[in-house]
Amino acid sequence: MEAAWLVATATMAVVVLAGLRWLHEWVQEHGLGEKRRHLPPGDMGWPVVGKMFAFLKAFKSGDPDSFVNSFVRRFGGVRIYKTYMFGSPAIMVVNPDACKHVLMDDEHFIPGWPASTRQLMGKHSFVDIVNEEHKRLRRLTAAPINGFEALNTYLFFIEHTVISTLEKWAGMGEIEFLTELRRFTFRIIMKIFLSEEGESEMQMLERVYTDLNYGVRAMAINLPGFAFHRALKARKVLVDTLQGILDRRRETRARNVYPAKKDMMDNLIDVEDDNGRRLSDEEIIDILIMYLNAGHESSGHITMWATVFLQENPDMFATAKAEQEEIRRNMPPGQKGLTLNEVRKMKYLSKVIDETLRLVNISFVNFREATKDVYLKGYLIPKGWKVQLWFRSIHLDTDVYTNPKKFNPSRWDDFTPKAGGFVPFGGGSRLCPGNELAKLEISVFLHHFLLGYKLIRKNPKGPVRYLPHPRPIDNCLAKVIKLHEKSV
Predict the structure, then answer these.
(1) In a domain, 294, yes or no
(2) 3-state class of 166 per DSSP?
(3) Which parts of 30-114 fold into alpha helices (H)?
């Protein structure tokens, strides 16, 4: 009798749970009417949370690819699936052609980042603004970061910082290599955006950004103990600090005192639209928060992984080092440092960086939102639904890359992946405006590291954490050893 009761109870629980999932799917789709039939296959998950628990479980288990793979296994290789994540119904795209289509189509797709990201970055940052406002701010900020003249100007500071930083690390013993690299890249982006600010303020801001990052792709739960709650507190500190800097700048200008050379904050203060309107303090702060965050996170992580991959592959290390030695030998007599001309000769190193970007996938997913009903690969993307572009799955697609989980810079020899198959910095009108600066930082660092240093990790086989970005759990605890060769 007791066994029968247990069986009946278990059966009832299964029926109730299945009913909840069916009801959740019906609630999300019933307004579509007959158009429901054209949605791609998929799984909407549970009410409220959707598939978030499955997503978090996969990424925290050390096997992040198991999440998308579960859709492929259950629903076939269509590479477009329906789901419910980050509080919204969504279409997951893991097909390169479809990814390219969404990235290039500004008429039908606008940014669709989760509520947590929008709130943390601010309503005036690039993750939220659209159309002419986005184009205007991008024009203003792109050239001072990625333009030839800007990169040439930054190169001296970057190289000087690399040389002094590597020398310092070599004398520190065991360090958290990733943590120190993030400080290094943050120092560079701070110089570009807020050139006058002091070391103490810079260190404080860098620490606060760590908390901000952990909340960017978290569930928007504003309760103590949750990543989003800590990130909101971090944003408040950032806003207050940047407002203080902005106030000091305006006070200085009121006394008719202007800097000899403008940084990005100065440019944002001065810009006017066609009607003479200037940016508000809130707009300036949101733009700075976004750029300061994006401008050091990806560079720091990719530099670490590229260094680690090269150190783990002695033949690749030797090839990269030989290229850098040849570049040094061929520098004109009397030239004391690198120029952009030398950086552009780093062909193999460029492949190392691209391969690291592909394999590591700092931005594993990107978000858009459909502005009207769109049909993609024969499937409906309803108006208002989110579109998740799974860059990680695209970069590890066996139809595009042979043995995709193997680090192999030589795969880029005379190889161009299909459109939409390599998108580490996004694409279309929203291509990351700091991509060239990031590559310059990484190239200069690796140049000097290869010529004069080696890395000895304490836990080379240690576990990796994949949220918010792939990183060793120990932050790459290691020693930087200076070799007999000089790095300059």
Answers:
(1) yes
(2) helix
(3) 52-60, 65-75, 96-104
Taking the C-alpha atoms of residue 370 and residue 81, their distance in angstroms, rounded to an integer, is 15
Q: Please report whether residue 45 resides in a domain.
A: yes
pTM equals: 0.90
Buried b (16+ CB within 10 A) or exposed e, 262-284: ebbbbbbbebeeeeeeebeeebb
**Helix, strand, or coil (residue 330):** coil
Q: At what angle do helices 52-60 and 65-75 cross, to 10 degrees?
A: 130
pLDDT in tens, 63-78: 999 999 999 999 988 9
Show the tokens assigned to 87: 């509080």
Domain-embedded: residue 253: yes
How many separate domains does the chain show? 1
pLDDT tens, position by position, 281-309: 998 898 888 887 777 788 999 999 999 99
Q: Domain with 90 in it: what CATH number? A: 1.10.630.10
Average pLDDT, the chain: 88
**pLDDT over 50 (residue 488):** no
Distance separating alpha carbons of residues 471 and 466, to the nearest angstrom: 6
**What's the CA gap between 411 and 362, in Å, rounded?**
20
pLDDT higher than threshold 70 for residue 10: no
CA separation for the pair 255, 56 (Å, rounded): 53
Per-residue pLDDT averaged across 427-448, rounded?
Answer: 85
Q: Residue 246: inside a domain, yes or no?
A: yes
- DSSP for residue 386: E
Q: Which residues does the annotation place in the binding site? A: 432
What is the residue-wise DSSP string for 436-455?
Answer: HHHHHHHHHHHHHHHHHEEE
Nearest to 291 by CA among 138, 71, 413, 98: 138
Residue listed under structure tokens 């440092």: 337
Q: Which residue has the tokens 């290229």?
A: 323
Per-residue pLDDT reduced to its tens digit, 94-143: 999 999 999 999 999 999 988 888 888 888 888 777 777 777 777 777 66
pLDDT value at 243 more than 80: yes
- pLDDT-derived band at 216, boundaries 50, 70, 90: confident
Q: Kind of pairing, strands 366-370 and 464-465?
A: unpaired
Q: Residues at the annotated binding site for heme?
A: 432
- Residue of 111, 109, 440 whose CA lies nearest to 290: 111
Contact 120, 417 (CB under 8 A): no
Residues 6+ apart with CB under 8 A from 379: 38, 39, 40, 78, 80, 91
125-162 burial, b at 16+ Cβ within 10 Å, e below that, comes to: bbbbbeeeebeebbebbbebbbeeebbeebbeebbebb
pLDDT mean over 219-238: 88
Domain assignment of residue 311, given as a range: 24-482
